[in-house]
TrEMBL record:
Family: Belongs to the sodium:neurotransmitter symporter (SNF) (TC 2.A.22) family.
Cited Pfam families: SNF
CDD domains assigned to the protein according to its UniProt record, in alphabetical order: SLC6sbd_Tyt1-Like
Membrane topology note: Multi-pass membrane protein
The species this protein was found in: Uruburuella testudinis
InterPro entries, per database record: Na/ntran_symport, SNS_sf, YocR/YhdH-like
Protein name, entry field: Transporter
Compartments where located: Membrane
Top-level lineage group: Bacteria
Segments crossing the lipid bilayer: 12-31, 37-59, 92-114, 142-164, 176-200, 212-238, 250-275, 295-320, 341-360, 380-399, 420-441
């Protein structure tokens, strides 16, 4: 029985899209594309999203809506007495760790909101140095991470309809409008077409197993799949929701924002003489420079960073809700103390990541800082493994007629669409994920 639910269909779509359209599209996609060849990475990301990400997203919708339970209990309901609940436990643990370092980047965004309103962002600022100083300051990094977690905790405490959904339905359209304005300005900068070419004209020497694995991880990260977040959100769905159209909306909104982010960033990168492979700081160095060339740029930059903060928070809501739902087992009375306790634990675990760019930059494991290690393990390994398990569970363990019958509820798509989805989930998604892994490990 669903003890909480979305108040409307659009509320679910906006919340699920908000989970996807966070730093995955706005922050991580531009810098990951920039360090992996631009257009080749974008093509791989697009293909993996369409052919693998979307089928797995729908599979997570099936698990969540069919069971009406959190990520762990969902597998207990659908496969009682089996080992499958460990997939849910892995997803919950991944969301916990993911939010611990994601909240660090959320803290950076929050810091830039303060920079924008305090006047630290101005036409004569050295934006590269400003970013380096922001992330290297141990007190500031931890403080802003804590503030970001406090906001996340405050919203998730409110539950689904009154917390997450209400926060998601107002500012997402404003984010799209500002993004489109930025794209127009960025494309009219001198030398901008070199950036468009970098994003859309492939240089095939960048096509290699590592790029494929990272693009696959980005497809999963961008759609919030493989870590049970979408299982959790869809558990609050009614049977009247058209899951095919909802998933399609979430996917295309995510791809659109990723493309818009690329069309803002890369033309400006080349116009202002920046290198596209700067890494995580790309959006924080280039975007402020772009705004200095726009009328009322400093005011607009402050507003834009507020909206980016909101988009960042909507993803954080999904991660925290995944952990909380598993902790309270549909007992909403336990929500507030659970959210506060889990939020505090995530903040503490995230402190080493917050320090990874300052006093903790020499704390390395396998040659990676704590922040980079968590990022690599979650997005390049845990998410694809989680997605593979979901695909196998729905398409090979669950009974086919029951799966298709459930997915058709509330749907008015063509009769062939569920069949095509099921075939892609059963064969294409597992084979593609396994091939990428095998290639990366040097087995083929």
């Amino acid at each position: 029985m669903k003890s909480a639910s979305w108040s409307s269909k659009i509320g679910f779509i906006l919340s699920a899209a908000g989970s996807a359209i966070g730093l995955g599209a706005i922050w991580k996609f531009p810098y990951t594309a920039g360090t992996n060849g631009g257009a080749v990475f974008f093509i791989l990301f697009l293909l993996f999203t369409l052919l693998i990400g979307l089928p797995v997203l729908l599979a997570e919708f099936y698990i969540g809506r069919k069971s009406g339970r959190n990520a762990v209990d969902a597998f207990k309901v659908l496969a009682p007495g089996s080992m499958w609940p460990w997939v849910g436990r892995m997803g919950v643990a991944a969301c916990f760790v993911l939010l611990s370092f994601y909240s660090v980047v959320g803290g950076w965004v929050l810091a830039y909101v303060v920079h924008a309103f305090s006047g630290a962002v101005h036409p004569h600022a050295d934006f590269g140095q400003l970013f380096a100083d922001t992330i290297a300051n141990p007190v500031g990094a931890v403080l802003y991470q804590a503030l970001f977690m406090l906001v996340t905790v405050a919203v998730v405490q409110g539950g689904i309809a009154n917390g997450i959904e209400k926060a998601s339905r107002y500012l997402m359209p404003a984010l799209f409008v500002l993004f489109i304005l930025l794209v127009v300005r960025s494309l009219t900068l001198p030398g901008a077409m070199a950036g468009v070419s970098f994003l859309l004209k492939p240089q095939w020497q960048y096509l290699n197993p590592q790029t494929m694995l990272i693009a696959l991880g980005q497809a999963f990260f961008a759609l919030s799949i493989g870590v049970s977040a979408m299982i959790t959100y869809s558990a609050y769905l009614g049977d009247d929701q058209d899951v095919f159209r909802s998933a399609n909306s979430v996917m295309w909104l995510n791809l659109l924002v990723s493309l818009l982010a690329g069309l803002v960033i890369f033309p400006a990168v080349f116009a202002f003489g920046f290198a596209p492979d700067q890494g995580p700081g790309l959006i924080f160095v280039v975007l402020p420079a772009v705004f200095q060339h726009i009328p009322f740029g400093q005011v607009l930059f402050a507003v834009f960073m507020l909206l980016v903060l909101f988009a960042t928070l909507t993803s954080a809501f999904a991660m925290l809700e995944t952990v909380i739902a598993a902790a309270i087992h549909n007992h909403e009375a336990r929500r507030r103390p659970a959210v506060r306790l889990v939020g505090l634990a995530i903040f503490i675990v995230g402190i080493p990541s917050a320090l990874s760019f300052g006093i903790g930059k020499d704390w390395t494991i396998f040659g990676k800082t704590v922040f980079d290690l968590w990022d690599y393990l979650i997005t390049a390994w845990i998410m694809p493994v989680g997605a593979l398990c979901v695909a196998v569970f729905v398409a090979w363990v669950q009974q086919k007629d029951a799966v298709l019958g459930h997915m058709r509820r509330g749907s008015n798509v063509s009769a062939s669409i569920p069949q095509l989805w099921y075939m892609a989930l059963r064969y294409l998604a597992p084979i593609a994920i396994l091939l990428v892994f095998a290639n990366t490990l040097g087995w083929i």
